[in-house]
Amino acid sequence: MSRTGVRRSWPLPPGGTMEAVAPSAAGTPALRCAGHERGYPQFLDRAARIATGLAELGVEAGDRVAVVLRNEPAHLEITTAAALLGAAAVPVNWHFRTDDLRHVLTDSGSVVVFAHTDLLPAVTAVLPTGVHVIEVAVPPGVAAACGTDAPPATGRHPLLDDWLAERAPLDRPAPLRPPTVIYSSGTTGRPKGVLREPVTQEVLAEAVTGFLEYFAVAPGGRTLIPAPLYHASPSQHAVLALAAGLDITLMPRFDAEEFLRLVERHRIAQTQMVPTMFVRLLRLPREVRERYDVSSLTSVVHAAAPCPPHIKHAMIDWLGPVLREYYGGSETGAVTWCDSAEWLAHPGTVGRAEGTCAVAVLGPDGTALPPGATGDIYVRPADTWPRFSYLGDPDGRAAVEAPGLPGYVTLGDIGHLDEDGYLYLSDRRNDMVISGGVNIYPAEIEGCLLSLTGVRDAAVFGIPDEEFGEVLAAHLETDAGERLTAAAVRAHVAGRLAAYKVPRTVVFEERLPRDDSGKLFKRQLRDPYWEGHGRRI
User: Fold this and answer.
1) Quick check: 201 pLDDT over 90?
2) What pLDDT does residue 392 have?
3) Cα angle at 517 between 102 and 238, to 5 degrees?
4) In what order do the strands lie in the sheet with 505-509?
5) Which end of the chain, N or C, is less packed with Cβ atoms under 10 Å?
6) Superfamily of domain 432-530
7) What's residue 6's pLDDT?
8) Average pLDDT over residues 453-463
9) In this structure, are residues 446 and 459 in contact, taking their beta carbons and an 8 Å threshold?
């Protein structure tokens, strides 16, 4: 048995093609979303028919297929279908418009695009010449959850359900499966695609084994995916959950109370979240949280951003020691891990390197720093993790590699290691503020602001200042009816942090710009301050 209590011998079904799945204690595993449920046999049949249709359109191994869809079963069917051909799906942020959307569709070289009906105008407006389009009807439940309409079909493109029904299932799947091509959200520039090498069935089976162990989920267990599939973590989570034959519930869009309702209704055992979701759950009135039975949860995994310690303490107090955290990225997969007990013993950590992974913290000259010293974080992924490159940027891989440390790359974060090898994040390198020669990490201040009663969300960043070069600005989203003042905000920070960490400017926003997974677009807030000041943002 592993340290999580999950046997490490759970394999993929014969051939690794998911023709069979493990039974769950609650019945036959299925994939469900917004009131619709699809069993694995139907799911796999549809995926195999889509694969045949793609092959008829000329899709071959090594090609890419764009998916401009909200979370719903078709998203995963198309991803699976592409993999059956040895092609890679490209999940596209469905919020993208004009420049970002044009860039992803062009840069990825996608030969086919699947898009929801209401997203087609944006897609076709920037579509490269010669790309095939398959229209996907918006399921009514998905439309309702996302606050949009389910418009009628345009009639200008093949409609997915009709198109796949006309075809027989593909009967000869490709031996190598390329991972999905994930694009960044464009928070600091143009989105860039991470292209990873195809993997064998044996490597995929090993990945499933690691997934079951580190995510602490039993074979045939029930998992909930509340984050958008266009991000790396939920996309990888979904692919591995499918390969493991788990019972899967997708949320079209995260809503705190709906999340609790789904956990109770489907007796969810495992989920993966981001800290912003924790904040939104904890902001629910106590009587609302206590209305739902979430005792089925045995593993709540989180990553993607530093979690303020008081938020994580509150989640553990509520749910018990079921939280598990990791650090990694699209390029590397998960590198460090910690469970609740480890985190409570090392508050603030994102874990310690596991297996063949490794972490180094380097100074400006590229030398390794001692425990406790803050520097640039470089990580070495697991030996079995597929090598990566950046689409359209042949020099991009070299730019993130560590000097003198083969195999180590940076994801752009700053932090330190402790004496026991546990990693702590300070902030993103791009978000660090240098004020009067002093390095300031906004994530720490944001965590402090989130502990102030009435603050729902916080964004802290540097703005130009003639004397200090940069000073801090804080943009805050507050609870309805809350009458906070800038002076009260500054006093709260001044009472807990050093004086130079107190925001000079405080702005109250109706809503901060975040995507569905909680990723904050600081650039939208920061750019106007720097217009005409020549700072590279």
Assistant:
1) no
2) 83
3) 90
4) 455-465, 469-478, 505-509
5) N
6) ANL, C-terminal domain (3.30.300.30)
7) 32
8) 91
9) yes
